[in-house]
Amino acid sequence: MNFIRHYLLAVQFFTRIPITGRLAQWTGFSTAMLRASAAHFPGVGWLVGGVAAGVYALVFMALPDTLFTPLVAAVLSTVASVLLTGGFHEDGLADVADGLGGSADRQRALEIMKDSRVGAFGAMALMLALLAKVSLLAMLGASDLLLACAALLAGHVLSRGLPLVLIRVLPHVGDAASSKSKPLADQISGPALAAAFLWCFGAMVLVAWTLDATFFIAGGACAGLALFWMGRLFERRLQGFTGDALGATQQVCEIAFYLGAAFAAV
């Protein structure tokens, strides 16, 4: 039962899906439970990726077969994922771009990242990230509908698992008093990482079984490289990570997975 409670807590934290009433009472809440829910972040990716893939497929099949059909499907599936998560990770990407782009000084960069307003660097990062997602998903859909749907599911799952590595190897440097991610970032245990790996492994097996292992290898390799680059960036500039850094890493790894899948589709 704790498995389900921790999963529901992760869904509550990372999506706009309401967990209320008797279900919320049954789920419960504590700092230890929130920390344990980190193992199920990739499980939230199954939910978000599944909805995004479903919207993509429905729009793709409902519209006339034109050159713009994959593009419309990519836009609306991205809208669905943003509505489902409330743009939680996109907000982190914008904050990180504003902080690291706005100042070379570590402390000043951290202060900028806490500002809720979006600056020029954040706006540019957000716009380019959305363009990259939509264009890559449109390209994958133009190649094969099943490929686009599989990439959406696997990309959302794997990109939520990889940032957990940062929690394991880097210290949390956000504002401990106000950071929502602090209980999550205190530590992540080996068993929790193993549980997160199982969530990711299931998605990768599904992709490899549905399509071809090449897409998993190419997408996973690009997402792994993106994780390495983001980790080095945060280690050098911030000497650690924040909740926004985890969100930005999810976004970059998701785009990198789509890019790898697109390379494999050529």
Automatic annotation (TrEMBL):
The keyword Cell membrane applies. Its main location: membrane. The keyword Kinase does not apply. One of its GO terms (biological process) is cobalamin biosynthetic process. One of its GO terms (molecular function) is cobalamin 5'-phosphate synthase activity. Its cofactor is Mg(2+). Signal peptide: none annotated. It is a multi-pass membrane protein. GO terms for cellular component: plasma membrane. Joins adenosylcobinamide-GDP and alpha-ribazole to generate adenosylcobalamin (Ado-cobalamin). Also synthesizes adenosylcobalamin 5'-phosphate from adenosylcobinamide-GDP and alpha-ribazole 5'-phosphate. This is Adenosylcobinamide-GDP ribazoletransferase.
